[in-house]
Amino acid sequence: MTMQMQACAPEMSATILLVEDDRDIADMLAETLSQNGYTAVSAQSGAEMDRLLRRQAFDLVVLDVMLPGEDGFSICRRLRAEMRTPIIMLTAVATDVDRIVGLEFGADDYVTKPFNTRELLARIKSLLRRASYGSERPERPKTMSFAGWRIDPVSRTLLDDAGSQVFMTTAEFDLLVALCLNAGRVLTRDQLLALTHAGVAGPVERSVDVHISRIRQKIEPNPKEPSLIKTVRLGGYLFTPMVDAS
C-alpha cells in the first residue's frame, strides 16, 4: 500500500487525521481543531485510516492506542515505516513504559487521557512548527555531511553513503540537526529540547533519551556501542563526527 506523504501546508491551515474509535472524543477534537483553524478528518480504525491515507495527504496524525482490531502501537510502527508525518499518540495508560513504547515505535509525542485540549493543541502546534522549521531558517546550511551521512535541514532528508533516504520522525530529525549544528559540544537534555524548539509543549526530558536511542539505531555502525553520539555521564550527549556544511 502506498500512503500519502506529508502535505506542505501552512501551520494554521494544516489537515489533521484523528484515529479515534470513541465518537464523542473524536467529535470533540474535530470541533476544537476546526475552531482553531485546522481541518480535521476522523477515522475509527486502522482500516478506515488506510482508506483515507490512500485518498488524501495529512500534515499530522493523532492516533489513539486502544482501537478495535489493529492497535495504535502496531499502526504507528506501520505508518512510520512509510511516512515521516508527525504522530501524536493518545494513551489512557499513564505509565512510562507505555509512553516509551509509543516513542520507540516512531511516535513524535504522546498525550495521556484524560487530557486538556489546550495541551493537545499546544503539542500539535509545536510539532507542526518543528516539521516546517527547516524552510523557515534560510541561515542554516543547506546540507551537512558526517561519517558518510548527508542531512538536508531544508528538505528534511537524511541520506546514507549510498544515497538512500532513511525515514526519521520529526523529533528524531530535529535532534540530529541540533547535534550536527553543535558537533563537538556536550548538550544537555534541556538544551536539546530548546534547540529543537519543543518548548513547554515538547516531549519530556526522558523522551529525549528514547529519540536518541532511535537515532543511534539508524546511523551508528554499532548502536550497542555508539561512536557518533556519545552519552556524557551527568552531562548529556556529545556528537563526535566532523561535520562539513555547505
From TrEMBL:
Domain Response regulatory: 15-128
GO CC field: cytosol; protein-DNA complex
Compartments, as annotated in UniProt: Cytoplasm
Residue ranges constituting the OmpR/PhoB-type domain according to the UniProt record: 141-241
Positions of post-translational 4-aspartylphosphate modification: 64
Highest taxon listed in the record's lineage: Bacteria
Residue ranges flagged as DNA-binding region: 141-241
Family matches, as PROSITE patterns: OMPR_PHOB, RESPONSE_REGULATORY
GO biological process, one term: regulation of DNA-templated transcription
InterPro entries: CheY-like_superfamily, OmpR/PhoB-type_DNA-bd, Sig_transdc_resp-reg_C-effctor, Sig_transdc_resp-reg_receiver, WalR-like, WH-like_DNA-bd_sf
Any one Pfam family match given in the protein's UniProt record, by short name: Response_reg
Record GO terms (molecular function): phosphorelay response regulator activity; transcription cis-regulatory region binding
Main location: cytoplasm
Alphabetized UniProt keyword annotations: Activator, Cytoplasm, DNA-binding, Phosphoprotein, Transcription, Transcription regulation, Two-component regulatory system
Protein name as it appears in the record: Regulatory protein VirG
Organism: Chenggangzhangella methanolivorans
